[in-house]
Amino acid sequence: MNISILTIGKLKEKYLLQGINEYLKRLTAYAKVEIIEMPDEKAPENLSDTEMEQVKQKEGERILSKISEDTHVIALAINGKMKSSEQLAEDLDKLATYGKSKIAFVIGGSLGLSNEVMKRANDTLSFSKMTFPHQLMRLILLEQVYRAFRINRNEPYHK
Protein backbone atom coordinates (compact mmCIF):
# COMPACT_ATOMS: atom_id res chain seq x y z
CA MET A 1 0.00 0.00 0.00
CA ASN A 2 1.25 3.49 -0.87
CA ILE A 3 0.11 6.18 1.52
CA SER A 4 0.70 9.87 0.92
CA ILE A 5 0.05 12.59 3.42
CA LEU A 6 -0.48 15.78 1.48
CA THR A 7 -0.13 18.79 3.68
CA ILE A 8 0.04 22.54 3.46
CA GLY A 9 2.84 24.24 5.36
CA LYS A 10 6.33 23.34 6.44
CA LEU A 11 6.96 21.64 9.75
CA LYS A 12 9.69 23.26 11.85
CA GLU A 13 9.06 22.01 15.39
CA LYS A 14 11.75 19.48 16.34
CA TYR A 15 9.58 17.59 18.81
CA LEU A 16 6.90 16.99 16.16
CA LEU A 17 9.50 15.99 13.55
CA GLN A 18 10.95 13.43 15.99
CA GLY A 19 7.55 11.86 16.57
CA ILE A 20 6.68 11.89 12.88
CA ASN A 21 10.00 10.30 11.94
CA GLU A 22 9.48 7.59 14.58
CA TYR A 23 6.09 6.62 13.12
CA LEU A 24 7.38 6.81 9.54
CA LYS A 25 10.11 4.36 10.56
CA ARG A 26 7.61 2.02 12.24
CA LEU A 27 5.30 2.14 9.22
CA THR A 28 7.99 0.91 6.78
CA ALA A 29 7.08 -2.65 7.81
CA TYR A 30 3.52 -2.14 6.55
CA ALA A 31 3.39 0.41 3.76
CA LYS A 32 5.29 2.97 1.75
CA VAL A 33 4.43 6.28 3.39
CA GLU A 34 5.47 9.70 2.19
CA ILE A 35 4.72 13.19 3.39
CA ILE A 36 4.36 15.79 0.67
CA GLU A 37 4.58 19.33 1.97
CA MET A 38 3.32 22.21 -0.11
CA PRO A 39 3.83 25.86 0.75
CA ASP A 40 1.03 27.73 2.41
CA GLU A 41 -0.34 30.80 0.75
CA LYS A 42 0.99 33.98 2.35
CA ALA A 43 -1.89 36.07 3.63
CA PRO A 44 -2.42 38.90 6.11
CA GLU A 45 -4.10 38.22 9.46
CA ASN A 46 -7.45 39.89 8.73
CA LEU A 47 -8.85 38.37 5.56
CA SER A 48 -12.26 38.95 4.05
CA ASP A 49 -14.34 35.88 3.23
CA THR A 50 -13.44 36.32 -0.44
CA GLU A 51 -9.72 36.49 0.35
CA MET A 52 -10.00 33.38 2.54
CA GLU A 53 -11.61 31.48 -0.32
CA GLN A 54 -8.83 32.64 -2.68
CA VAL A 55 -6.17 31.37 -0.26
CA LYS A 56 -7.93 27.99 0.07
CA GLN A 57 -8.35 27.87 -3.72
CA LYS A 58 -4.61 28.37 -4.37
CA GLU A 59 -3.63 25.84 -1.71
CA GLY A 60 -6.25 23.44 -3.10
CA GLU A 61 -4.76 23.69 -6.59
CA ARG A 62 -1.37 22.69 -5.16
CA ILE A 63 -2.92 19.73 -3.39
CA LEU A 64 -4.92 18.53 -6.40
CA SER A 65 -1.83 18.72 -8.62
CA LYS A 66 -0.26 15.96 -6.47
CA ILE A 67 -3.20 13.53 -6.65
CA SER A 68 -3.45 10.96 -9.43
CA GLU A 69 -6.81 9.70 -10.73
CA ASP A 70 -6.38 6.26 -9.18
CA THR A 71 -5.75 7.62 -5.67
CA HIS A 72 -8.32 7.18 -2.92
CA VAL A 73 -8.47 10.55 -1.16
CA ILE A 74 -9.36 11.00 2.50
CA ALA A 75 -9.70 14.65 3.51
CA LEU A 76 -9.15 15.56 7.14
CA ALA A 77 -11.86 18.03 8.06
CA ILE A 78 -13.44 19.14 11.31
CA ASN A 79 -16.86 18.24 9.84
CA GLY A 80 -15.63 14.90 8.52
CA LYS A 81 -16.70 11.47 9.74
CA MET A 82 -15.55 10.52 13.21
CA LYS A 83 -14.27 6.98 13.42
CA SER A 84 -12.77 4.75 16.03
CA SER A 85 -9.27 3.36 15.51
CA GLU A 86 -10.88 0.01 14.71
CA GLN A 87 -13.13 1.61 12.07
CA LEU A 88 -10.15 3.32 10.42
CA ALA A 89 -8.30 -0.01 10.44
CA GLU A 90 -11.31 -1.70 8.82
CA ASP A 91 -11.52 1.05 6.17
CA LEU A 92 -7.84 0.69 5.27
CA ASP A 93 -8.19 -3.09 5.15
CA LYS A 94 -11.20 -2.83 2.81
CA LEU A 95 -9.32 -0.43 0.52
CA ALA A 96 -6.43 -2.89 0.29
CA THR A 97 -8.81 -5.80 -0.33
CA TYR A 98 -10.50 -3.96 -3.21
CA GLY A 99 -7.23 -3.03 -4.88
CA LYS A 100 -7.00 0.59 -3.76
CA SER A 101 -3.26 0.64 -3.19
CA LYS A 102 -2.83 4.42 -3.40
CA ILE A 103 -4.29 6.40 -0.53
CA ALA A 104 -3.81 10.09 0.12
CA PHE A 105 -4.71 11.75 3.39
CA VAL A 106 -5.07 15.50 2.90
CA ILE A 107 -4.39 18.03 5.66
CA GLY A 108 -5.24 21.58 4.71
CA GLY A 109 -3.71 24.81 5.87
CA SER A 110 -4.90 26.98 8.72
CA LEU A 111 -8.05 27.98 6.79
CA GLY A 112 -9.01 24.42 5.87
CA LEU A 113 -9.54 22.79 2.48
CA SER A 114 -11.01 24.24 -0.69
CA ASN A 115 -14.37 23.07 -2.03
CA GLU A 116 -12.56 21.47 -4.99
CA VAL A 117 -10.42 19.32 -2.69
CA MET A 118 -13.48 18.32 -0.69
CA LYS A 119 -15.29 17.35 -3.92
CA ARG A 120 -12.29 15.23 -4.99
CA ALA A 121 -12.20 13.44 -1.65
CA ASN A 122 -13.62 9.92 -1.57
CA ASP A 123 -14.05 10.15 2.17
CA THR A 124 -13.63 12.58 5.04
CA LEU A 125 -12.16 12.03 8.46
CA SER A 126 -12.39 14.05 11.66
CA PHE A 127 -10.37 13.30 14.76
CA SER A 128 -12.42 15.60 16.95
CA LYS A 129 -14.79 18.54 16.98
CA MET A 130 -11.83 20.43 18.41
CA THR A 131 -9.44 22.33 16.18
CA PHE A 132 -5.84 21.08 16.12
CA PRO A 133 -2.82 22.73 14.52
CA HIS A 134 -2.28 21.11 11.13
CA GLN A 135 1.35 20.39 12.13
CA LEU A 136 0.19 18.29 15.07
CA MET A 137 -2.37 16.47 12.91
CA ARG A 138 0.44 14.87 10.92
CA LEU A 139 1.73 13.15 14.03
CA ILE A 140 -1.74 12.12 15.22
CA LEU A 141 -2.62 10.78 11.76
CA LEU A 142 0.59 8.77 11.43
CA GLU A 143 0.05 7.25 14.87
CA GLN A 144 -3.50 6.22 13.92
CA VAL A 145 -2.40 4.74 10.58
CA TYR A 146 0.29 2.76 12.42
CA ARG A 147 -2.30 1.63 14.97
CA ALA A 148 -4.62 0.57 12.12
CA PHE A 149 -1.97 -1.70 10.61
CA ARG A 150 -1.26 -3.22 14.03
CA ILE A 151 -4.99 -3.83 14.58
CA ASN A 152 -5.39 -5.43 11.13
CA ARG A 153 -2.53 -7.82 11.81
CA ASN A 154 -3.66 -8.65 15.34
CA GLU A 155 -0.35 -7.33 16.68
CA PRO A 156 -0.21 -5.96 20.20
CA TYR A 157 -0.32 -2.21 20.66
CA HIS A 158 -1.26 -0.16 23.70
CA LYS A 159 -4.93 0.69 24.04
Automatic annotation (TrEMBL):
The keyword Ribosomal protein does not apply. GO terms for molecular function: methyltransferase activity. Gene3D superfamilies: 3.40.1280.10. It catalyses: pseudouridine(1915) in 23S rRNA + S-adenosyl-L-methionine = N(3)-methylpseudouridine(1915) in 23S rRNA + S-adenosyl-L-homocysteine + H(+). SUPFAM superfamilies: alpha/beta knot. Specifically methylates the pseudouridine at position 1915 (m3Psi1915) in 23S rRNA. Belongs to the RNA methyltransferase RlmH family. This is Ribosomal RNA large subunit methyltransferase H. It comes from Litchfieldia luteola.
